[in-house]
Amino acid sequence: MQLVLLDSMTLGNFDEKIFTQFGDFKSYPTTDSAQVLERAKDADIIITNKVVLDSAILSSLPKLKLICISATGTNNIDMEYAKAHNIIVKNVAGYSTHSVAQHTLMLALSLLGRLSYYSQYVQQGQWCKSEIFCHLAYDLQDIYGKQWGIIGYGSIGKQVCSLAKAFGAQVSYHSTSGNNTQNDIPHKSLDEILKTSDILSIHAPLNDTTRNLIAKEQLRMLKKGAILLNLGRGGIVNERDLAQALQTQDFLFGADVLEYEPMQPNHPLLDSNIMHKVLITPHIAWAYKDTKERLLQMVAENIKQFLNVTA
What we know:
With about 300 residues, this protein is of the alpha/beta class. The chain contains eleven helices and eleven strands. The strands form two sheets. It has a six-stranded parallel β-sheet with strand order 7-6-8-9-10-11, sandwiched between helices. Strands 2-1-3-4-5 form a five-stranded parallel β-sheet. It comes from Helicobacter trogontum.
């Protein structure tokens, strides 16, 4: 078998033996659209995270039998063409539930405790100049007793619920599809959950229903001092409206996803006037060590199952 990994940088460092066991394995850090055909022309199996494989590319890869997506989303693959031409596409799902939930709590706790400010205060030597034993520039907030709203109550949303409850939060949720409303915690309308939540975390997929779900009108509904977190997909929160709202409203924002990634240099959330209200990480909630190893094992298992079936 000829295997090619087109974007190894999206997986970081890992032991390539997990794939070399299946055949002749080649790996490239990144691959742009002009390089795909040359690199994948002899491949029986392609492994990729984000490289686009449309019908024009797939039609020029006659040996290709299997595409392994090292992620959950398959929107970079022309699924109809693949199905029509007997190219199997396998993704991985559920591997990052615990790490994304943990990352959500980390962002919430960091914002509640103004961790970035206070850490910089110490690192810059300011504490050494203090007249008293502590420094209280910003109010700190407990999770205990707070209203925590969850938008998107799938496996990650449920795990966040469990963690938030462990800290003593009162949890409710909003189903973006409207179909998931039979659970053991209160379901609220979008308007209600926006108006009542002290902490509001998003764990929904991006689709026609959720795109720009949180825009100017919805942001106006947020409680004073609220924390809004997006751990779902970029594009659910209108980032331009968000940046404008942060200029005048009293709330904080944390995220691990943006509509366009990597972040654009002129992004409105980089405005120095609001940066003290913002905590953004570069799409790493899925990439905790144990989680990434689980993902790689799942990709390898997809290959193994394919080879067992075709043997």
